[in-house]
Amino acid sequence: MYEVLFWTVEPYKRNQLSSLYGVEMKVAQNPTFRPVLPEDLIAAMYKQNKSIIQLVKTMTECWSHSTIARPQFRDIVEVLEDCL
User: What is the pTM of this model?
Assistant: First the structure.
């Protein structure tokens, strides 16, 4: 979802990792490691589409280290349908 929202295939680039292997190692060392969200881009996108906040919220919930805190697939689908 990060790639779709922010039009990039490198969500960890802002964290200065040189490869996907670097991401795997970083997550292995720190299970809560996640991409940095570009707040300036979120603010700009919000002006065009208010549903961006719900999409970002859902995306970050999906990243939760706790499987219990992650949304169920049907909830993700509902958010996506509401935003279209």
Answer: 0.69
Token output for 31: 């299970």
Helices marked H in the chain:
2-6, 20-29, 39-48, 52-62, 73-83
Q: Name the domain count of the chain.
A: 1
Per-residue tokens: 83: 């935003």
Query: pLDDT tens, 26-38?
Result: 777 888 888 777 7
Q: How far apart (Å, rounded) are the C-alpha atoms in residues 1 and 71?
A: 14
Question: Would you state the pLDDT for residue 77?
Answer: 94
Owning domain of residue 53: 2-83
